[in-house]
Q: What sequence folds into this?
């Protein structure tokens, strides 16, 4: 059940049987020459809705704006500051916690969300630990869909190092599956596979820990960060989605039943 398609009475009835909610979280930013601006939100939402359909869990509205300052040199990118996103996550969680929700399961589609969401979770718990809020503190978990073992195995087998860090063939494959007819032809100057990322870059910039927008555009002029997006197919996207949903259902079940 989607929260946006439910009445308050239906949410109230849901709360009588479950206090868990799934929250898709993505970004709105450039995804290279053939990827869509909404890739991270579209993919996280599809995985979250799949988990919701298979488990009967409620799925909240998608958080589709995020921290993407490093991509602001590419038209269409919208970035929140990290402190803004932390405040949004805080208010999203505490609004629903007040009504009886206790477990918040974030399905993530954007690397930069990992550190920000975990910091927001710590600040939510701190309000209970320090006594400014009372009662049962909520519990939050964030999982990136590509980290579910079932999806991770597929992307490693299919793309290897060409998966890269941004505008990955796996995320492009999933949007090709979700939006038939959305395939784009790359401009000729961007047809070649990008250079493989050195291990030191992966170490220093994992989780989208990139520098400012001007530096980022100069380093990655077409927007891909070591990812050969053109390897993506819609058929692979369908398989990745199914694999991520399978992994997500297992992890969500473990989260909601955790003592
Ligand atoms: Ni992405």
A:
């Amino acid at each position: 059940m989607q929260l946006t398609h439910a009445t308050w009475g239906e949410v109230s009835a849901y709360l009588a049987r479950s206090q868990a909610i799934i929250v898709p979280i993505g970004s709105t930013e450039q995804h290279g020459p053939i990827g869509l601006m909404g890739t991270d939100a579209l993919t996280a939402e599809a995985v979250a809705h799949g988990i919701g359909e298979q488990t009967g869990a409620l799925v909240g509205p998608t958080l589709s704006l995020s921290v993407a300052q490093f991509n602001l040199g590419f038209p269409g990118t919208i970035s929140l500051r990290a402190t803004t996103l932390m405040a949004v996550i805080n208010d999203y969680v505490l609004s629903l916690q007040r009504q009886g929700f206790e477990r918040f399961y974030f399905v993530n589609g954007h690397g930069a969300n990992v550190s920000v969401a975990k910091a927001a979770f710590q600040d939510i718990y701190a309000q209970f630990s320090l006594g400014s809020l009372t009662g049962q503190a909520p519990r939050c978990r964030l999982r990136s869909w590509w980290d579910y073992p079932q999806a991770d195995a597929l992307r490693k087998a299919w793309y290897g190092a060409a998966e890269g860090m941004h505008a990955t063939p796996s995320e492009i494959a999933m949007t090709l599956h979700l939006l038939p007819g959305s395939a784009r032809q790359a401009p000729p100057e961007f047809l070649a596979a990008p250079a493989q990322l050195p291990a030191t870059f992966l170490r220093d910039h994992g989780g989208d820990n990139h520098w400012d927008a001007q530096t980022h555009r100069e380093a990655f002029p077409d927007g891909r960060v070591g990812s050969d997006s053109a390897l993506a197919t819609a058929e692979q996207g369908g398989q990745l989605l199914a694999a991520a949903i399978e992994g997500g259902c297992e992890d969500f079940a473990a989260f909601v039943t955790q003592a």
Remarks:
- The chain has a mean pLDDT of 97.
- Residues 31, 39-40, 110, 171 surround nickel (II) ion (CB under 6 Å).
